[in-house]
Structure formats: C-alpha cells, structure tokens
Design goal:
The protein is mainly alpha-helical. 73% of the residues lie in helices and 0% in strands.
C-alpha cells in the first residue's frame, strides 16, 4: 500500500503544476519578437528595431485590428447567458446524452467532419469560438472531459483548413494574387489536392481524438488536464455530468425550452450560412434582388443589410444580439432581467476578447518593423535553384515558421504570393502545389500558434490551458505535417 501511495504522489504533484496563463504567453511572445527586431536591425536597414512605445501600443493597435471579433465574442457571451437563463441548454445536453447512452463516441467523427467541411470551404476557425462552450458541455456530460470537446472543434475545423478546397481566405486570396501576377492557376488541381489533404488530415485527427476520448471515458486519470483544469471544468460544466441520477442530467425539456433550443440552433445555422461564400460556388440564391453594386437590395439582406454569404463578424454580431433579445422576450424576462443577464454574459467574455486582441499585437509589431517581409524575402532567396524534392519540404517549413508570426491566412497569402509565386514559376514548379503547401503549413500552425486568438479564446471557454492543448495535439501535428509533406513533395515531383 505504501508503494502504491508513493507511486501516485509524483503524478499528483505533476497535476498540480500550474501552466502559464494565455496573457503571459502572449506578452512573452510580444517581447521576444520586439527583441528580435532590435537584434536584426543591427545587421540590416531593412528592419526597424521595435521601440518601447511600439511594444506598449501594440496591444491597443491589436485590439483595434481585432475589434469586430472582440465585439462578437462579447455579444456571444450575452447571447449564451440568455439561453442559459432559460435552462434550455443544460436540459438539451442532458437529453442528447441520454439518447446516446453507450454510443457517445459516434458524436466525435460526425461533428469533426462537419467542422472540417466548414474549414475546407470557407476557413471556419475564428468562427468556431462559440462552439467550444457547446462541445465542452456536451462531451463533459457524456463522460469525457472538456479537452475532448475542445479537440473536436479545434482539430475538426483545423484539419478542414489544412485541406482547404475553395476557402476564399486562403486559396482564394492566393490564387487571385498569382493571377494578378500573370501566373496561370488550375482551380481543379487545387480542389483535388485540397480534397486529398482534407481526407488525410481529418482521418488522422478523428483517429487521435476518438482514441483519447475512449481512454478518458474508461479512465478519468488518462486525461491530459491538470487538477486545476479539472476543478475549473467541473465547476463550469459539472452540473450536466453524472450517472443519470443528478437532477440536471435527468432534466426534461419543457415546451418553452424546446422553442429556445430551436431558436438557438437556428442562430448558429444562419451564422454559418451567412459566412459561406455561396457565389464562389455559383449559388446566387441569397443575392436575388440585389447586385454587385447594390447587394443591400438582395432579399436575404433584410436581417443585417448584407446578404447571406457576404457576412463577417459585424453582421454575425448584430444577428446574435437580435436573437438574444428574442429569446429573452420569449422566456418572459423583464426588461431589467434581459439587460442584466446580457451584460453579465458579456462581462464573462471580457478576458476572452482581450486574449484575441493581445494575440494580434505580435503581428502588428512584425508588420510595422518589416520583420515579416525581411524573413520572407530571405527565405525565398535561399530556396532559389533547389530541386523539387528539396523545394517542397523546405517551402513547407518556411511557411510553417512564418505562420507563427502571421496567423491571418489572407494576410500570409497577400504577403507571400507576390514573392513565392514568381520564384516557383521561374523554377518550373507547379504553382498549384506551392499554394497547397502554403495552405497546409498555415493550417497546421493555425491549430497550435499562440498568436491565434480564437484558439486561445476557445480553450479559455473550455477551461483548457494552452500548454495542455499542445501536449494533447502534438502527435497529431507531427503525423499530419509529415503526411502533408510527403503528399505535396510527391505532387511537386510528378506535376
């Protein structure tokens, strides 16, 4: 017995170890990048060393840059608080878990594929923030941990972004940039490569998540989460966990709660429909009545003034605000209760919004000091004249490293394609493969970079620390990266 106790002691001490807060991680990254710009500026005039003022103002400028996303997150908090006020979400989760009793694992591949399709078609990643709460609650109630819910969202959507097919924010911007340079791009090849990468990345991610979930289901001690995280997640989501004896777990949906859940689901469906660029697929249904010059005339623009398919975060924010009020009225809350509940939900999201803003500050410093352009140009020069079997993996590594500093897929494409496009074309290599190398590498990094404020925000909602997530996904990242490199190198050699 003494031996058993002794063997458990080190594990317990390890579990109690606190991981760095997201804010601390981001501040350290900001300072590190600033120091790097100063060092590089000593050797070249192409980079301006960041000043103390640059570091101090970077978070403010980052907040301004991420304003739409931050406001969306705050309003999302108010919306979720309104739904929670009715008790519909807890009862709905309990009902779902009871219906899936013994078959909870089935949810994982289905949901991950759905997130993956959204990631592949329109780059759904920042938009996944609200789903972390839903999946954390559902997976916790189903007997897993909140990390499982976070991984379903993160790896599901992330794998989809790795295998982007018609994603306008990565593939679309990249191909447009190449076309503007006079470099012909075969969209069919890009879609084909994207589908191959999509299947590979999703299969790897689903396998790892299902294996982890099964382990946690069988043995709670198998979780990657620390005792601190487990305590926080239990406090936040424990009301829906149980063996079927708890009142929350056994809750039955009332008629009013069913209506609230329908409206809740409708809110997210409309958001997704609003974000998907339907016209890129040749679908003009939501633009009927409008035109390119006057899209506000479209019938679907009555909600926000912008037709479905052209939404961004401003439109989504307005929609969630409207539905929060509708649900509050339906629940027969007083005006004072609606306002109080909404503001309380917003308050809970302030730290999440600030994480997103702070994450943007690093990119601000990189851009203002021209460090990003310096790295890009020198890397491109180093790749000139190398054979295809070296060019492909080296380019993947180059995009992989640079993506940590430039988390925006469209920003990366805008910056990199005018340099990498002519280089690739001049060497006689396939520009389509080069585009997919950029897409895959950036997609992999988007999952793990601390500069991705949406990921940090989602993890915070799921009560999962950044370091815990890294530990959980590292095998997935390594295996997926190697698979992408092998496939894309082969494609570069053959085409």
């Amino acid at each position: 017995m003494a031996e058993t106790t002794a063997s458990k002691a080190p594990e317990k001490r390890k579990k109690k170890r606190r991981t760095p807060d997201s804010f601390i991680i981001l501040v350290v990254c900001l300072i590190a990048v600033a120091v790097a710009t100063v060092i590089v500026s000593l050797f070249t005039s192409e980079v301006a060393g960041a000043t103390f003022a640059d570091v101090v103002t970077a978070p403010v400028l980052g907040f301004a840059d991420a304003m739409q996303v931050c406001v969306f997150v705050l309003v999302l908090g108010g919306f979720l608080a309104m739904v929670n006020k009715t008790g519909a979400l807890d009862a709905g989760v309990a009902t779902l878990v009871r219906a899936l009793k013994g078959r909870e694992l089935v949810l994982i591949p289905i949901l991950m594929l759905l997130f993956g399709i959204c990631g592949s078609t329109y780059g759904m990643l920042e938009e996944t923030v609200p789903f972390y709460i839903l999946l954390a609650a559902t997976m916790y109630a189903a007997g897993f941990d909140t990390l499982t819910g976070a991984l379903v969202v993160l790896l599901g959507a992330g794998a989809g972004c790795i295998g982007s097919t018609v994603n306008p924010f990565s593939v679309g911007v990249a191909t447009a940039a190449l076309t503007d340079l006079g470099i012909a791009v075969d969209q069919g090849l890009i879609i084909g490569f994207g589908l191959v990468l999509f299947v590979i990345a999703e299969a790897i991610s689903i396998f790892f998540v299902m294996r982890y979930a099964a382990k946690v289901k069988a043995d709670k001690g198998s979780t990657f989460m620390s005792l601190q995280e487990q305590t926080e997640s239990e406090k936040e989501y424990g009301q829906t966990e149980g063996d079927g004896k708890g009142s929350a777990f056994s809750a039955v949906l009332t008629g009013k709660q069913k209506i609230v859940l329908v409206l809740f689901a409708l809110t997210f469906v409309v958001m997704i429909v609003g974000f998907v660029p339907w016209q890129n697929f040749g679908i003009d249904l939501f633009m009927l009545g409008g035109s390119a010059d006057d899209p506000s005339g479209a019938w679907s623009a009555f909600l926000t003034g912008t037709p479905l398919g052209s939404w961004y975060f401003n439109e989504a924010t307005a929609w969630f605000l409207l539905m929060a009020i509708v649900i509050g009225i339906l629940a027969r809350l007083s005006g004072k209760d609606i306002v109080g509940t909404f503001l309380g939900g917003c308050a809970e999201m302030v730290s999440v919004a600030l994480v997103i803003a702070l994450a943007r500050s690093v990119a601000v410093v990189m851009s203002e000091t021209a460090l990003d352009t310096f790295i890009l140009e020198n890397a491109a020069n180093a790749l000139a004249g190398v054979p295809a079997f070296i060019f492909a993996p080296a380019t993947f590594l180059f995009y992989f490293v640079l993506s940590f500093a430039i988390p925006s897929s469209s920003g990366m494409a805008t910056l990199a394609m005018p340099i990498m496009g002519p280089l690739t074309d001049g060497l006689g290599f396939s520009p389509e493969v080069m585009v997919m190398i950029y897409v895959a590498a950036h997609g992999v990094v988007a999952i793990i970079t601390p500069m991705n404020g949406a990921v940090l925000a989602g993890l915070a909602l799921a009560k999962v620390q950044y370091a815990t997530m890294l530990k959980a996904v590292m095998k997935v990242i390594v295996v997926t990266s190697l698979a992408c490199v092998v496939v894309l190198t082969a494609a570069m050699l053959l085409i």
